[in-house]
Amino acid sequence: MTSGQRPGGPAPEAGGLPLLGNVVDFRRDILDALHQGWQAHGDLVRYRLGTVVVHGVSSPELAGEVLTDSATYGKLGPDNPLRLILGEGLLTSDDHESWMRNRRMMQPIYSKQALSGMYRAMVDSVAEQLTHMARAYPSGAEVDVHGEMMRVTLDIVSRCMFSTDVSRTRDKLSPEAVDVAVNYAFDRLQNPFSPPTAWPTPRNRRFQRVMAGLDGMMYGLIEERRAAGVPEGGANDLLDMLLAARDADTGEGMTDRELRDEIITTFAAGHETTAVTLTWAFYLLSQHRQVLRRAQEEVDRELGDRMPDVEDLQRMPYLLQIFEEALRMYPSAPIVPRLTLKDTVLGGHHVPKGSRIMVDLFNIHRHPDHWDDPERFDPDHFTAARRKGRYRFAYLPFGAGPHLCIGKHFALLEAHLLLAALIRRYDFRHIPSHRVVNHATITLRPKYGMAMTLHERHRARRTAAVPATAGTPTD
Ligand code: HEM
Hints:
Elements: H1 23-41, E1 44-49, E2 52-57, H2 60-68, E3 73-74, H3 83-86, H4 96-106, H5 112-116, H6 119-136, E4 142-144, H7 145-162, H8 166-169, H9 175-190, H10 202-228, H11 238-244, H12 256-270, H13 272-287, H14 289-303, H15 310-314, H16 317-329, E5 335-340, E6 344-346, E7 349-351, E8 356-360, H17 361-364, H18 384-388, H19 408-425, E9 426-430, E10 438-440, E11 444-446, E12 451-456
Parallel strand pairs: 2-8
Antiparallel strand pairs: 1-2, 3-5, 4-12, 5-8, 6-7, 9-12, 10-11
The structure holds protoporphyrin IX containing FE.
């Protein structure tokens, strides 16, 4: 899609109210506002939130330009409300030097190889989730699948981060606490008229209480672990690995503040994103029974009655294609934000220094120049051949360029495992009277949760799903 605006001039503007600009539309439904702007004005559209200028980017080509040029398109600055939670961790740091130093230190921790050491914790968590679901829901019972996916992904990241200390972190890092914090920050992100954080409003006070609890717990744990030193036999979990990480040039590790910021960033970035995509995947499967049957055949053929080990997962590529297709249709981090650090030209249009850029993955993943039949759920969009022929920035669920998601392999591994374990055990059916509406906060959630009934498959054969060791027979 192209705009009809003159080259070198500003991008076409979406209109809006005097003073407020597009604040009301963005607060009502930011993805819908950006989608309408795209349809009406093209791949680059200018919006206003009060005095803040925002550019919506909806084409793979322009997204590639923005995400690979961090000298022109930086992270949001110190006024980024997410900083109230995440401090200056990888996701929110706007200081390129310190970001690069920490990214280099952390990259090996999230490599495919290092993750295989964490697989056991993931399997334990999934096994516990299956036990919990078997107890809580008799076959055919109604379940909020979104709530269950949030529960298990939070548990996975907690076990991988804190191993034996995990139970101590549960109340301060509960789904409810995370929700209060994330909603608070997101609201401030799209509403420049929010009351100052120092005002004693009930909402400000609730947020401060949650953060004080979280920080107290986090600094306490860091102090204890520092005192204990790295355990014999090497690091047990992500926290040990972060404590042991050293800058290759100076030999220095992270300060307590840096550790706190990176740990909270991992939680914020690393559980809900996977949980919502799994939720959408189960919903899509319930609407496309032939895809579900193919997935069930793959699981039954490759897994029988076992929990999968990493090699089993490699023999189940269709499951991964399902997850990738769910991420295409419902990218769980749908908007990647940037700030122009200088005046620039994008798509032939002048974009002034200080403009916020919103790279819109929801629109990009449906761009008609790059996707056939984009509204159709078709995991075969991700066969090896079709993947190979695709323009590299047409599919960006994990971002691109230097800030590419550091947890991509972690997310794919846990999602693959969860899909295998849950599809093997249950048939998911959506309750038709339940309304499915997507709603973008920082993640793309189902606004009213996801009410489904769960029906046990292979009932007669199953006794228990808790494996003695990862990959050993359970039944
Ligand atoms: C389906 C799951 C996930 C999705 C869709 C996702 C998406 C993204 C995206 C789009 C970015 C780029 C942000 C930007 O360029 O500004 C990003 C960055 C990041 N993600 Fe993920 N993510 C997922 C899972 C995870 C997990 C499991 C972790 C950690 C265990 C994680 C940690 C991070 C961090 C730390 C960054 C910042 C990287 C940097 O700027 O250097 N993410 N993620």
